C-alpha cells in the first residue's frame, strides 16, 4: 500500500525560489520515469524523512501533486547538507504498480547462533539482497534465522525459503552469514637470553691471554 504525501508542482527553478522552498521546511525534488517527462516539485522534508524511516527506502509513495495528479514513486536518491544536517534535494522514480522493479532489500539476522554460544564468531558479509518484484510486493526486510548455526556452518542465498513474491537476483552461492571458529590467542614469545655462544667465549678468553702475554 502506497503512503500518501502532498506535493507542490515547482515551475520556477530559480535559486532564490529554491531557497524559499527550503526555508519553509520543504525539499525540492524531481520525478523521473520510463517514458515520462521529468516533473519538478517539492514535498515536506520532515514528512518525507519520516516516511522513509518508518517504511524503508523502498516504500511506495503516492504523491498528491497540487490536489490533482497522483504519482506513485520510490525515493531514488537524496542529498543532505552535512553541516546543517538538512535534506537538500530528492530524486524520485515513477513506478508502474503492475511492472517489476529491481531493488536492494536489507537483510537482518534473528536469534543467537549455537556456535556463537560456544565461542564462535558470527560473520555477515551480505547486508542487502538484490530482488525483483512488483512495487507493492517488495519486502521491507529479509529475516534470516541463525539460531541453529554451529561453528563452521553458513547460510547461502540459495538456502532462503521459497514461497516468496519476489525473485532473488543474487548468486545462490553467495554467503549471507556464517559462524567461524574462535580466534586463537597468539602465543607469548619466549624471552631471549643474552648469552654469547661458547665459541665466542673461548675466543674472548684467548684474546685476553694474548693481551697478558704482550704486556709481559
Automatic annotation (TrEMBL):
Pfam families, per this entry? Answer: Ribosomal_L25p, Ribosomal_TL5_C
Q: Which GO terms describe its cellular component?
A: cytosolic large ribosomal subunit
- Provide ranges: composition bias, Acidic residues: 184-197, 204-216
Segments for region (Disordered): 175-216
**Statement: the UniProt record of this protein carries the keyword rRNA-binding:** yes
InterPro entries assigned? Rbsml_bL25/Gln-tRNA_synth_N, Ribosomal_bL25/Gln-tRNA_synth, Ribosomal_bL25_b-dom, Ribosomal_bL25_C, Ribosomal_bL25_long, Ribosomal_L25_dom, Ribosomal_uL5_bac-type
One of this protein's GO BP terms? translation
Looking at the record's lineage, which domain of life comes first? Bacteria
The chain positions of domain Large ribosomal subunit protein bL25 beta read 101-182
Q: Where is the Large ribosomal subunit protein bL25 L25 domain?
A: 5-92
Task: Enumerate the GO terms in the molecular function aspect.
Answer: 5S rRNA binding; structural constituent of ribosome
UniProt keywords, alphabetically? Ribonucleoprotein, Ribosomal protein, RNA-binding, rRNA-binding
- What is its biological role? This is one of the proteins that binds to the 5S RNA in the ribosome where it forms part of the central protuberance.
Q: How does it assemble?
A: Part of the 50S ribosomal subunit; part of the 5S rRNA/L5/L18/L25 subcomplex. Contacts the 5S rRNA. Binds to the 5S rRNA independently of L5 and L18.
- Tell me the HAMAP family matching this sequence: Ribosomal_bL25_CTC
The entry's family comment says: Belongs to the bacterial ribosomal protein bL25 family. CTC subfamily.
Q: What is this protein called?
A: Large ribosomal subunit protein bL25
Q: Which species is listed as the source? A: Salimicrobium halophilum
Amino acid at each position: 500500500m502506497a503512503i500518501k504525501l502532498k506535493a507542490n508542482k515547482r515551475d520556477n527553478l530559480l535559486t532564490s525560489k529554491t531557497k524559499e522552498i527550503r526555508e519553509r521546511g520543504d525539499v525540492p525534488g524531481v520525478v523521473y520515469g520510463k517514458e515520462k517527462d521529468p516533473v519538478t516539485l517539492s514535498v515536506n522534508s520532515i514528512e518525507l524523512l519520516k516516511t522513509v524511516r518508518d517504511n524503508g527506502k523502498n516504500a511506495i509513495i503516492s504523491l498528491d501533486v497540487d490536489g490533482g495528479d497522483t504519482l506513485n514513486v520510490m525515493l531514488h536518491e537524496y542529498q543532505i547538507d552535512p553541516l546543517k544536517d538538512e535534506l537538500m534535494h530528492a530524486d524520485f522514480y515513477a513506478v508502474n504498480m503492475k511492472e517489476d522493479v529491481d531493488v536492494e532489500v536489507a537483510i537482518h539476522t534473528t536469534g543467537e547462533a549455537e556456535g556463537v554460544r560456544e565461542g564462535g564468531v558470527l560473520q555477515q558479509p551480505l547486508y542487502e539482497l538484490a530482488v525483483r518484484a512488483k512495487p507493492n510486493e517488495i519486502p521491507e526486510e529479509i529475516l534470516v534465522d541463525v539460531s541453529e548455526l554451529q561453528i563452521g556452518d553458513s547460510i547461502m542465498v540459495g538456502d532462503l525459503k521459497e514461497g516468496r513474491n519476489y525473485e532473488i537476483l543474487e548468486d545462490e552461492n553467495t554467503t549471507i552469514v556464517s559462524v567461524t571458529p574462535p580466534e586463537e590467542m597468539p602465543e607469548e614469545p619466549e624471552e631471549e637470553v643474552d648469552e654469547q655462544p661458547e665459541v665466542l667465549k673461548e675466543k674472548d678468553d684467548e684474546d685476553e691471554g694474548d693481551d697478558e702475554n704482550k704486556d709481559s
